[in-house]
Amino acid sequence: MAQTSNGTLAEVAAASTAGPAGLSAGTIGDSEFDRDTAVARRADEPGVYDAELSAGWTIINAVNGGYLLALLGRALSDALPHPDPFTVSAHYFTPSQPGPAVIRTESVRSGRTLSSGQASLFQYDAEGREVERIRVLASYGDLGALTGEVCTTAEPPVMPPLAHCLGASDGPAPKIPGSNAITDRLHLKLDPATVGWALGAPSGKGEMRAWFGLADGRDADPLSLLLVVDALPPTSFELGLKGWTPTVELTVHVRSRPAPGPLRVSIVTRNLAGGFLEEDAEVWDSADRLVAQSRQLARAPRS
Amino acid sequence: MAQTSNGTLAEVAAASTAGPAGLSAGTIGDSEFDRDTAVARRADEPGVYDAELSAGWTIINAVNGGYLLALLGRALSDALPHPDPFTVSAHYFTPSQPGPAVIRTESVRSGRTLSSGQASLFQYDAEGREVERIRVLASYGDLGALTGEVCTTAEPPVMPPLAHCLGASDGPAPKIPGSNAITDRLHLKLDPATVGWALGAPSGKGEMRAWFGLADGRDADPLSLLLVVDALPPTSFELGLKGWTPTVELTVHVRSRPAPGPLRVSIVTRNLAGGFLEEDAEVWDSADRLVAQSRQLARAPRS
């Protein structure tokens, strides 16, 4: 699959996923997502990158964890010899806020098919001291070098076609405390079976399903999948819990390069206990390939 | 749930899980598992621990990854202010061998309910230089301080009672290349539906289920759950693949203190693709609580 910008594919994708905001079509390397996850390597400090956390990806009272993971993933993609995230494990320490950040990476080991590294994202306190927000361990490889062999029993989520799913423009805005800015960056169409929370009638099931695209039509790539797994409303909304569901730990496996076109995302919570819950996400591409799997441990909202 | 040694509970557990080796009953704090995962804090180097990797926990050509995770988990339990692993993410770089090892820990952040840290396990090369085997990020808490609230849709695995499942003493030893030493440390009784691999007739399904106990009857605790999630034969055996399935990354969520008595472990692989596979494990205790969830990314065997 070509990872370089491809006019024809991008146009097709833009036509199928362009959001109501009518933003100009973004292509891989030249999009809202790419601009807002850009990192600048410091010339005098190897492995250190400056970044600006965009206010455009905030939700409730913090910057979205998937967006942050993509930003860390981009730094590691530059720092490590292999290009693609295979497995990325992130532990979230403190909520990130829009503004400047610095990412410090460490290359731990370089093997033939996999290389491994670590990265931390810091912001600054009132005295200008670095405060660590997130730390990540990751193993990178080359998805293009994998064999084509697929032996899977997993099946794509059962959900209505995109045209029958519901987005931000299809009804009154649901009541979410704080910022909802990320909504404008995404072309998210929720399975009607999992929108009860927005209408005051949560299903009681820990499930959330949606068609996913970036609002400017940029296609998915391995890096953006790190965002995708954490970009839906939390399953806790459908369990009748409002408020923020802060991620403690999130691990993503990227299993294949996504084909162009909209993605399907299914998130399931099976065990809410003792004030914590897991969210298991699967991401399927337009070619019916399971392209990413993730699991996170999060704190349940208090309500 | 009392974590201290309890004669009566330990005797019950020993009676129900004592292995054919006829080992003396082990209790928490005084067992094969505790002896072999012991770590010795260096007096002159804060956060550094010496350990001896036991040959008793080897499988095929390396020390078992779950055993190693428990060893790292024990060091972090000492180094961090909170006692119990809540989520532990490990990236495995090089295979560990029996013999001396050193664990270097770092306390990253201490919060009220969670503290986070990092640990690496090193061994020595021929020149005595440290070689990093595994690196771990972890968030610890106090399972005893969690609310009793449980809202779960997950169900225990459907499998026959322990007496109808099959262990090492119930048939000829299956052909496994290299060491099989870990078998003697465990009282593992496999669901007959997932033992086809040992008889030359793998089911073709990526499933493995077993009743789990330690051979000396020691009860499970949060630390031993880090072993349990990686102690069954790999699901790839039932997919007809022989040989080693090296773990790239393994993340465990410990969700509750396990009740005394045998555990049920279910492992499922849904996506074997491009030479990699995931293994999702669930561990259920004798009180029907989901006590641990894990996922690993592993390389598929070549055969």
Automatic annotation (TrEMBL), chains A, B:
Top-level lineage group: Bacteria
Residue stretches making up the Acyl-CoA thioesterase-like C-terminal domain: 178-298
One Pfam family recorded for the sequence: 4HBT_3
Domain Acyl-CoA thioesterase-like N-terminal HotDog: 54-139
Lineage: Bacteria, Bacillati, Actinomycetota, Actinomycetes, Kitasatosporales
Coiled-coil residue spans: none
Protein name: TesB-like acyl-CoA thioesterase 3
InterPro entries: ACOT8-like_C (IPR049450), Acyl-CoA_hotdog (IPR042171), HotDog_dom_sf (IPR029069), Sec_Metab_Biosynth-Assoc (IPR052389), TesB_ACOT8-like_N (IPR049449)
